[in-house]
Amino acid sequence: METLLQQIVNGLVVGSVYALVALGYTMVYGILGLINFAHGEVVMIGALTALQTLLILMGVAPDMAPLLKLAIAVLVAMPVCMLLGFLMERLAYRRLRGAPRLAPLITAIGMSFLLQTLAMIIWGRNYHTFPQLISTAPMQPIPGVFVTPVQVAIVIVSALVMAGLILLVTKTRLGRAMRATAENHRVAALMGVDTNAIIALTFVIGAGLAAVAGVMFASNYGIAHYAMGFMPGLKAFTAAVLGGIGNLGGAMLGGIVLGLVEAVGAGYIETMTFGFLNSSYQDIFAFVILGIVLIFRPTGLLGERVSDRA
Amino acid sequence: MKKTGIAIAIMGLGFGLMSGGVSAADMVVKLGHVGPLTGSISHLGKDNENGALLAIEEYNAKGVTIGGKKIKFEIMGEDDQADPRAGTTVAQRLVDAEVVGVVGHLNSGTTIPASRIYHQAGIPMISPSATNPKLTQQNYAGVFRTIANDVQQGGAIGKFATGALGAKNIAIIDDRTAYGQGLADEVEKSAKATGGKIVAREFTNDKATDFMAILTKIKAQNPDVIFFGGMDAQGGPMLRQLKQLGINAKFITGDGACSGEMLKLAGDALSGNAYCTQAGLPLDKMPGGKDFKERYKKRFNLDVQIYAPYAYDAAAAMIEAMKVADSTVPAKYLSALKAINFQGVTGNVAFDAKGDIKEGAITVYQYKDGGWNPVP
């Protein structure tokens, strides 16, 4: 029983990070129909920028409170990533807006390579130790189930950020403009919405979320690396599709479900298949679930609520 | 015209000087050495070359007579830049120069492709530092190594876990690479053979950072020892996550994570419960280690890096085999090399049927006082 509960905790933590990254994919897809494959790289840039900031802070103000340092690092990483998101849209994707869908997709893949290589030039090929400023000392809220403060922080921060985003999209004028652009950007433009600005803003918000996700990811595992964005990016994209790409609630649900399926799958796949499959099939297990969901619900778990896209 | 004349005169002088040391009766025998002499591990390549050089200089000083002739050994040193392609190019150069044997290369990745060229040319080669089992699994007659391979390393880890650590229940994780998986398989075999029980065999990959799910599963099996076959980039975060999950089992890993980098990545998750292994003995523990250290320092005014003693023994093994066979012809001394058995710097030098060192030593290190320290 403790093992199952522990796996659920593991899944929730990983799932929260997936969900946060998945929001970036789903927002951009909702508005442009573009899968921004470079989004995972924005996560990486966020983590490495935060790392750089922390290293500088430790040099100039070693006595500063750890949480304050982390907050400053996040506040530096977010604008850097937002600027990156803005530039990506402005320089690469905007020019291709009328082009066949394949062109922006290939551009996104190229952008991903470009950002990885740039990060490799700036930060080198080595793995970096990311300072774990939120405690990783395990607590046992239920005997036998270990939870660390950093894991709690990840789940809480993700939940808050996602709630904020939902409020922004559903309750504000800006959100209404975003939803209108998502539905039909020509008509929205005719109604007086500056669609170019809205699209740029979508990229900027998504990149900001990615920066937060990157810092949380690096804080949890204690490492940062120029290629660290690839796997979470791929998983978050999967989560977005699982939940119904283009749907905000779907991205969150998809992220959490994927995290849980992975953790529980890795834990029990061997027992369930009587030893035929083992944990090296952890990733396959997640994709099998995705396949099954898409067979019965081709638009994903929450995909039918098209009007809610943002 | 004038310049050419001077150049010829200088060249003539040079040749005169070079041949000056060798009396007319001496026969010059060339041994090849290959290692990376440029690039990030060039210090290790030079270390190997110096080891081999020290061996032939000492034999030359003692005087070796083979086939009734006094022999003067020379080293032809080549640079493979730790690059497999450059490795095969210089291997061909050594073959063309008709060396009678090769000490090298340093890396498994360069040694394996180059070994084919030496094999085809019928020239024996002894690597002082390539540990990948594939090198000797090719079944080339003239391929040897003086360092323990990964099969031997895995065997030693299994025995250490069940013996010194007294483990009954062992969990094994590997990263599904040729190295990690190969090492983990050997650990499993040897742990089982020495009375251990494998309670979990889990897998990850060489890009993963999250091991919580598999570690949670392992925790439920309550192992005494967890072995990880893989590199430091995964080993570091894995140790941290072990701590986060409150797992107190001992952790042991192979040479891929037995590094200074591992110390950084695992950070404060390291404790006396963390162990790792390296092929070979620490220099001070080798039978001829202390003496070798002094001779080396005296000759090169440098400290031994890692593999110089193994390169020394590799060159010595070839010369000893030539003495036994009373011939420097590769085809003739090869059978003597296969049967060679003498006390070298690193220990007893004798090869098994595949060409691996028979008593390959493995050293276990334990984390203590901020670094890896050999377990006595």
From TrEMBL, chain A:
Presence of keyword tRNA processing: no
Annotated transmembrane regions: 12-35, 42-61, 67-87, 99-124, 144-169, 196-217, 250-269, 284-303
Pfam family, one: BPD_transp_2
GO biological process: D-alanine transmembrane transport; L-alanine transport; L-isoleucine import across plasma membrane
Alphabetic keyword roster: Amino-acid transport, Cell inner membrane, Cell membrane, Membrane, Transmembrane, Transmembrane helix, Transport
Localization, UniProt: Cell membrane
Database matches in InterPro entries: ABC_transp_permease, BCAA_transport_permease
CDD domains to which the protein is assigned, alphabetical: TM_PBP1_LivH_like
Topological relation to the membrane, as annotated: Multi-pass membrane protein
Cellular component, GO, one term: plasma membrane
Gene Ontology molecular function, alphabetical: L-isoleucine transmembrane transporter activity; L-leucine transmembrane transporter activity; L-phenylalanine transmembrane transporter activity; L-valine transmembrane transporter activity
Family stated for the protein in its record: Belongs to the binding-protein-dependent transport system permease family. LivHM subfamily.
Protein name listed in UniProt: Branched-chain amino acid ABC transporter permease
Organism: Denitromonas halophila
From TrEMBL, chain B:
InterPro entries in alphabetical order: Leu-bd, Leu_Ile_Val-bd, Peripla_BP_I
SUPFAM superfamilies linked to this entry: Periplasmic binding protein-like I
UniProt keywords, alphabetically: Amino-acid transport, Signal, Transport
Keyword Flavoprotein: no
GO biological process: amino acid transport
Keyword Membrane belongs to the record: no
Residues in the signal sequence: 1-24
Domain of life from the UniProt record: Bacteria
Record domain Leucine-binding protein: where: 29-370
Family: Belongs to the leucine-binding protein family.
UniProt name for this protein: Branched-chain amino acid ABC transporter substrate-binding protein
Species for this entry: Denitromonas halophila
Lineage: Bacteria, Pseudomonadati, Pseudomonadota, Betaproteobacteria, Rhodocyclales
